[in-house]
Amino acid sequence: MPYDPMGIRKAVDDATRAIDALESIATELEALEAEDKRRIEALEEQVEGQDNRIDELKDEISQLSREAKQPMPTLSYSSVSKFLKCPRLYYLENVKKVETFANGAMIQSGAWHQAAACNAVQKRKSGVDLPLDQMKALFMGALDEKFKVENVRLKENENRPTLESQGLAITEFFHKLVAPRIVPVLVEKYFRVSLGASFPFDLSGVWDLVDADNIIRDLKAKGQTPNQADVDRELQLTIYALAWRITYQEPEGGLCLDVVVKNKVLKYVRMNTKRTADDCYWALGLIERAAFGIGAGCDHPGTDGWWCSPKMCDQWTRCRVGTTFHGGKK
Fold first, then answer.
1. From CA 68, how far away is CA 55, in angstroms rounded?
2. What residues make up the domain containing 214?
3. 323 near 300, Cβ under 8 Å?
4. Assuming Cys at both sites, which of 98, 105, 155, 293 could form a disulfide with 298, CB separation 3.0 to 4.6 Å?
5. 315, 93 in Cβ contact below 8 A?
6. Measured at the alpha carbon of residue 246, what is the angle toward residues 243 and 250, in degrees to the nearest 5?
């Protein structure tokens, strides 16, 4: 084969270009490998971050689950009213859980309410009231049970025989004049409503009776006839209306006090009232402010009222003796 220097040079040039191309490809591959490595490391960091976030979310879910098992504390009309009347009394009885007492009027009213509720429950099905002797037997049984199980402290002017005879008279009067006027739909209906996800209390209570017209009726036995102006602004009825509207998303049919007046001659008075949306918003604001005070630990005594006396307040001694409000004994 003849010697061809041009051909040899061309072959060498082609080989050199091929080697350069291969080296360029190798360099690109190394760059791609380095980029892939950086991407893999970045992805691994992201995965590690996501794993950490998943662990955090699991902890949050676990915490929420624990909190969900602990029931939200509640405020009722009685607790709000007690705090507004005397934060010190609320602190002692609702926070410190000191010993409390029921007086004669309280257990008599409770026994009468229980008898009226039993009558209303069966009336929803039967359409008629119980016989009077059964109503009286229900009252006496409830009163006897309360004397046995509740921490009763009768006032100076109270005694058991009088409480029994007066309670039986109220029960008979109620059976004759009040019960026949009521067509019960809901009886002793417990409610518990949320006032917002961030609000620290639920609102709870019991509607005594709700009739066929969706009128919320509250049974009372009082020593004197209530004043209509007082009924029109009574906080308990406003809270009942607020809870109804939150629960059923519509206004109640009305509000009513069925009052047995405990004069020498018993008297029945039905007092009707109503609440506007503004009334309910006002009550909601009042509840929020009471909750704020409770949360802040306000426990000052409310001294400007009939309740602040040794005779009327069961916590008088705890409140007044050995107590200061500047870091002293509580």
1. 20
2. 74-320
3. no
4. 293
5. yes
6. 105
Say how far apart CA 293 and CA 60 lie, in whole Å. 29
Instruction: Compute the C-alpha angle 257/113/103, nearest 5°.
Output: 100
Q: Which residues pair with 202 in a beta bridge?
A: 74, 194
List of E strands, the chain: 74-75, 184-194, 202-211, 215-222, 254-261, 267-273
In a domain, residue 218? The reply is: yes
> C-alpha 267: how far from its chain's center?
35
Residues in the chain: 330
**Token couple for 283:** 């009550």
The answer to whether residue 62 sits within a structural domain is no
Total number of domains constituting the chain? 1
Tally of CB atoms within 10 A around 174: 25
Q: What is the CATH number of the domain that holds 170?
A: 3.90.320.10
Is there a domain that residue 28 lies in? no
For 99-135, write each residue's pLDDT tens digit: 888 999 999 999 999 999 999 999 999 999 999 999 9
Residue 307 has pLDDT above 70, yes or no: yes
Neighbours of 78 (CB within 10 A): 12
Nearest to 133 by CA among 115, 113, 153, 109: 115
Looking at the domain assignment, is residue 67 inside a domain?
Answer: no
What distance in Å separates the CA atoms of residue 102 and residue 106, rounded to the nearest whole number? 6
Count of CB atoms within 10 A of residue 175's CB?
22
**Whole-structure pTM value:** 0.75
